[in-house]
């Protein structure tokens, strides 16, 4: 966990250094010695009566092409009913396009872009997001309270990981609240308020770390099947936690960087790659657990017990794969196919699938005496002891009392 702590410290430092560059809908972009033939300045969805103001305050071209170089350009556009849609604003430098074989010439520019819809500064697809996030925050908070009530009601069947799952649900709710506030101020002022933006980034970072830690712990069978992580599983945590912190830092930097800057695409590619690596690393414990249970079921006399473990946890493993596959691939494909004003449905589908995944996980691992996950023998010594107790006629009917990792005595019924 020391690695996670160091990663969080680095992320917090980056948050403080990026405050002045928080992403807004009033864009100010400065490019020096630019070699790209075209630059994506921004993408924005305009409703009827939406406006676009572009002010190119400075454009410097090589002196060998022109005599002199301060070309200020500004223009204003208002979009009608037929012109509404999703627009991409690009800066093209034709000299580098025509002479691709030669060395690219250098350009420098300063541009200010202000995009606005009748209701505020948000793009058409982003207008519903503030209400969506605050509504989903209420749903996640309600689910978290129900989960805590369940833990208090069945306190003698609660494991440490149950409280970790509760912390994840509350952190997710808080992250959505700050995300909603962030979009509210962007819509009304054109830029986020620094304090609220920092709170969103912090809770987003914690939520991502808690999610992958929880998935890895459940995937390895920690607490439900065993209490000790193997060396391989510990290495997974040493890889996943720093990578997840890096992925969240990359997301924060992307949110704080203008789309037209060179660093934007660099960190966007880093985020995509690291996120895929994290998802793949999470699946390694799943593969190891299935392989271990399959081998154990054929090499010892407790095949039925191991097969039961495999059957139960295999369902959850499939659910993890489906959740990762949907949120990383399917939802993005749906976003591409939706009309511009309905692209907010992508965020709704991601949040809804996350809620369903949380609810199903809580239901499967709920602290109840009749939960088959919690009834599984915790280690092989328990199985052997049960067999000795039940097979002895003198000790028939005697139950074994087992000490759990939480320091409680749990009654384990024996076969009469």
Automatic annotation (TrEMBL):
<protein>
    <submittedName>
        <fullName>G protein-coupled receptor 108</fullName>
    </submittedName>
</protein>
<feature type="transmembrane region" description="Helical">
    <location>
        <begin position="340"/>
        <end position="360"/>
    </location>
</feature>
<dbReference type="InterPro" id="IPR009637">
    <property type="entry name" value="GPR107/GPR108-like"/>
</dbReference>
<feature type="transmembrane region" description="Helical">
    <location>
        <begin position="198"/>
        <end position="224"/>
    </location>
</feature>
<feature type="transmembrane region" description="Helical">
    <location>
        <begin position="163"/>
        <end position="186"/>
    </location>
</feature>
<dbReference type="GO" id="GO:0016020">
    <property type="term" value="C:membrane"/>
</dbReference>
<dbReference type="Pfam" id="PF06814">
    <property type="entry name" value="GOST_TM"/>
</dbReference>
<dbReference type="InterPro" id="IPR053937">
    <property type="entry name" value="GOST_TM"/>
</dbReference>
<feature type="transmembrane region" description="Helical">
    <location>
        <begin position="132"/>
        <end position="151"/>
    </location>
</feature>
<keyword id="KW-0732">Signal</keyword>
<keyword id="KW-1133">Transmembrane helix</keyword>
<dbReference type="GO" id="GO:0005794">
    <property type="term" value="C:Golgi apparatus"/>
</dbReference>
<feature type="transmembrane region" description="Helical">
    <location>
        <begin position="266"/>
        <end position="288"/>
    </location>
</feature>
<keyword id="KW-0812">Transmembrane</keyword>
<feature type="domain" description="GOST seven transmembrane">
    <location>
        <begin position="128"/>
        <end position="372"/>
    </location>
</feature>
<feature type="transmembrane region" description="Helical">
    <location>
        <begin position="236"/>
        <end position="254"/>
    </location>
</feature>
<keyword id="KW-0472">Membrane</keyword>
<feature type="signal peptide">
    <location>
        <begin position="1"/>
        <end position="24"/>
    </location>
</feature>
<feature type="transmembrane region" description="Helical">
    <location>
        <begin position="316"/>
        <end position="334"/>
    </location>
</feature>
């Amino acid at each position: 966990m020391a690695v996670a702590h160091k990663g969080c410290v680095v992320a917090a430092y980056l948050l403080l250094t990026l405050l002045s560059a928080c992403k807004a809908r009033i864009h100010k972009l400065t490019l020096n010695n630019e070699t790209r033939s075209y630059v994506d300045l921004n993408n924005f969805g305009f409703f009827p009566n939406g406006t676009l103001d572009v002010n190119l305050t400075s454009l410097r071209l090589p002196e060998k092409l022109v005599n002199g170089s301060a070309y200020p350009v500004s223009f204003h556009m208002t979009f009608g009913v037929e012109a509404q849609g999703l627009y991409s604003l690009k800066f093209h430098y034709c000299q580098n396009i025509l002479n691709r074989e030669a060395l690219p010439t250098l350009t420098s520019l300063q541009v200010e872009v202000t995009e606005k819809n009748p209701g505020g500064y948000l793009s058409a697809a982003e207008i519903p997001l503030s209400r969506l996030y605050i509504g989903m925050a209420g749903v996640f908070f309600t689910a978290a309270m129900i989960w805590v009530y369940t833990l208090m009601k069945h306190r003698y069947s609660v494991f440490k990981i149950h409280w970790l799952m509760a912390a994840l649900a509350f952190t997710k709710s808080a992250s959505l609240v700050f995300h909603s506030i962030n979009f509210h101020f962007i819509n009304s002022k054109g830029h986020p308020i620094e304090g609220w933006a920092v709170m969103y980034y912090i809770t987003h970072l914690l939520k991502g770390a808690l999610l992958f830690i929880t998935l890895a712990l459940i995937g390895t069978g920690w607490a439900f099947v065993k209490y000790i992580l193997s060396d391989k599983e510990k290495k997974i945590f040493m890889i996943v936690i720093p990578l997840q912190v890096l992925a969240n830092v990359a997301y924060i930097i992307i949110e704080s960087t203008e789309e037209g800057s060179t660093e934007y695409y660099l960190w966007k590619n880093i985020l995509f790659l690291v996120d895929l690596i994290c998802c793949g690393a999470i699946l390694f414990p799943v593969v190891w657990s299935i392989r271990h249970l399959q081998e154990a079921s054929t090499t010892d006399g407790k095949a039925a017990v191991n097969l039961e473990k495999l059957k139960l946890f295999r369902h959850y493993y499939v659910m993890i794969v489906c959740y990762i596959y949907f949120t990383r691939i399917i939802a993005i494909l749906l976003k591409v196919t939706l009309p511009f004003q309905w692209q907010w449905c992508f965020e709704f589908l991601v949040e809804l699938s996350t809620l369903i995944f949380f609810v199903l996980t809580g239901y499967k691992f709920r602290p109840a005496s009749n939960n088959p996950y919690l009834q599984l023998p915790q280690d092989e010594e328990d199985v052997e002891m049960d067999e000795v107790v039940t097979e002895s006629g003198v000790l028939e009917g005697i139950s074994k009392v087992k000490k759990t990792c939480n320091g409680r005595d749990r009654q384990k019924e024996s076969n009469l």
